[in-house]
User: Fold this.
Amino acid sequence: MLETLSEVQSLDLQRDALAVERGEVPTELLAARERRETLRRDLAKVQQEHEALRRRVASNELDLKTLQERRKDASEAALRATTSKEMAQYQNQELQFTTRAQELEEDTLPLMEELEGIAAAMAELEEQLAAMTPELEALEAAERERLTVIDTRDADLADRRARLCNEVEAGLLRQYEQVRRARRGLALVGLEGGKRCGGCHVQLPIHVLQKVRRGAGVTRCPSCGRLLVQPTED
Ligand SMILES: [Zn+2]
Assistant:
């Protein structure tokens, strides 16, 4: 019974090791994911800047169009003016609109240049992202493959474990699982030097040692609660 349980434990330890292995994502992949995230963040930031600036430029262009229309209206009104005073008023208006339109154009020009610079930065980041994609995809595919292999191995171990567990008495299995959870790993241990617990290394009392040696039922370490098995020479 304990021998079968010992096999169960061996499978459990292999599964523990697999779980650790599963979590060990290759550093190359982690670095590539990190780099992509950085590029994406940078790109999102630049895209926002681009959009904000594009709106400002569009708004200026709309204002400019309005000013030009008003200037045209003033110019036409000046031609239709009946008095010289009225004509001077419209001409004055036309001049004001012209000046404001010029100022706005001057203000907008650097914004448009800035917009071009941001668009170039955006294209550069998009290019960098596109350039790294094949490598990252290859690394991700390798990672999926790695995990599939581990999962297949684990499923096989789980299968073997389930079959073995059918042969172990339910109460004993329960005790084993409780101790394994509590001790995070080994639940079943041998005797160390023939007299100490193989788990917590405490020196075992004579009556406990005798019980273990007789192999009569399940004996637990009074200190750590692990299940003790027949002494092994070590
Ligand atoms: Zn112990």
About this structure: The chain has two domains: 2-165, 186-228. The chain is about 75% helix and 5% strand. The beta strands are 188-189, 191-192, 196-197, 219-220, 227-228. Residues 2-165 form a domain with the Helix Hairpins fold (CATH 1.10.287.1490).
